[in-house]
Amino acid sequence: MPSGPATIGDFSVLPVAIPPIPSFPHNVVHYLYVRRHTPKIPTPTDDRSLFLTNVPADSTEAHLRALFASLVGAGRFESASFESKRKDAHSQTQSLIDAAQPAHAARLLQAHGKKRKREDEEAERAREEAAARLPSTWTRPLRRSGNTAVVLLADEKSVEQVLRAIAKTHKTKKYPTWGADDGAGGGDVLAGKVPPLGSVWLKAHNRLSYPDKAALQASVDAFSTLFAQREQEAAEIAKRLRNEPDEDGFVTVTRGGRAAPASRTEAEEAKRRMLEKQEKKKQELTNFYRFQLRERKKEEQAELLKRFEEDRKKLEAMRGKKAKFVPES
């Protein structure tokens, strides 16, 4: 197998052998890049953590556990957290919420929906989403290319051992095999616990792509119920807002749906309230402008008095100079 550099910057390069499959009977080497975990915000476990990048798309915690067991033996690996795990869950949840309610309902519920306690809201939302979610067609998530992960080991000594073992693989050319469950030191502990790869995994996906009709119908019914519930809530809000002028005096107009048009009496009453608000605002503005006019007049009068006083003093000074004037003979 061709050998690459042992290190690139702060990263140690870990070659991983990808076993051949019937559709591609060739040996392939995949490179993982490993370094000490140094996040911007330090945590208590940084000294016994490793940061991995270029993680394979079919990675799971079990695969990484088997990989590290083949390097330093079992008992050193504690857990692994993938970067895309939280983001994927959030995007799937958000897309389900957006799809489960009409656009008009979404706007009304966001602007005028009743606020509930956070715990109650999250619990109710989780129940609704679980019932409306379609059966999964994958046994595990497929991660994006170049995904990253943080591996937590037993202690700081284990980090040193892993880094030394990675450097040793470049000398011995014995690369750990990706997906193997019989790593050194793993023995019976890891046997049978690594999820399958290749055609076995894809066959399981193909089976799950054709879910049971009863389960599929239950998910569709739950989704339809959730959609209708959101639409009904929006209709109730629209009915409550109908013919209620806002702070600017405008009346919310609702069209379609189950909301009936306003009666003539209700419309006239809404118009009267709107005119009263407008008249009140106009009166307030008029009083405000009168106040400004009074203040401006006071300032002008004070300025006139000041100039009059200055002119009077100048005139007296000129008269005093004229009295002292003696013409030459």
Automatic annotation (TrEMBL):
Domain Ribosomal RNA-processing protein 7 C-terminal: 208-327
Domain Rrp7 RRM-like N-terminal: 10-182
Domain of life: Eukaryota
GO cellular component: CURI complex; UTP-C complex
GO biological process, one term: rRNA processing
Family note: Belongs to the RRP7 family.
Protein name according to UniProt: RRM domain-containing protein
